[in-house]
Amino acid sequence: MSLLWSDLFWVVPLVGIITLLVVWVYYRGVRSADPGDEKMQEISQAIRSGAFAFIRREYTSVGWVLLVAIPVIFFVLGGASTLSFIVGAIFSLLAGFIGMNAATLANVRTAQAAKKSAADAIHIAFPAGSIMGLTVVGLNLIGISVLYLLFPDPELITSYGLVASLVALFARFGGGIFTKAADVGADLVGKLEEGIPEDDPRNPAVDR
How would residue 174 be classed by pLDDT, with cut points 50, 70 and 90? Predict the structure, then answer.
């Protein structure tokens, strides 16, 4: 019996679907948590706007790179690998968007929950932090499974993994720059507005 029709094969997309259901439960739980008072929500919205401005710019840059890479993949590896490359790109970018959405919703809700107890804060922060990783796993298990159903060729994983690594590379570099800028900005606000020394532990927004 081939791998395609074996019972073991169908476990893979099933695990992907279950994983996405867990993501949906986590997301609903984070979204339904208390977002805090008006001032906290105002700050949270500013952070959210900045984060999505960053991700729009990053995805625009990734898009231009993909436009150059897709014809190269097509002529070198063929149509099936090109489709795998495109699906991998879409799912990887979608996972990043979902993760950013969850993170920017969770930050203010975690801060509000921390007013009650550390345990309440963890009950929001842990699921929110899990959403990104679980989304990557769930989407990619489903994506690779569907591609294998269409084109039973294990080599498709090569082009799929190539674009996933490419998107991750942009996320690592861009995210590092963005977070460092946010760290410096928070440090400056603490010094200029509150008179707190650099990297002082009383400023919760700076690195320890």
Answer: low
Q: Structural domain tally of the chain?
A: 1
Domain of residue 104, residue span: 9-193
Q: Is residue 161 part of a domain?
A: yes
- Of 10-14, 89-93, 161-165, 171-175, the range with the lowest mean pLDDT is 171-175
Specify if 4 maps to a domain.
no
**100 domain-assigned:** yes
* 179: in domain: yes
pLDDT digits (tens, 9 = 90+) for 37-58: 888 888 888 888 888 888 888 8
For every residue of the chain, DSSP letters joined together read --GGGSHHHHHHHHHHHHHHHHHHHHHHHHHTS---SHHHHHHHHHHHHHHHHHHHHHHHHHHHHHHHHHHHHHHHH-HHHHHHHHHHHHHHHHHHHHHHHHHHHHHHHHHHHHTT-HHHHHHHHHHHHHHHHHHHHHHHHHHHHHHHHHS--TTHHHHHHHHHHHHHHHHHHHHHHHHHHHHHHHHHHHHHHS-PPTT-TT-TTS--
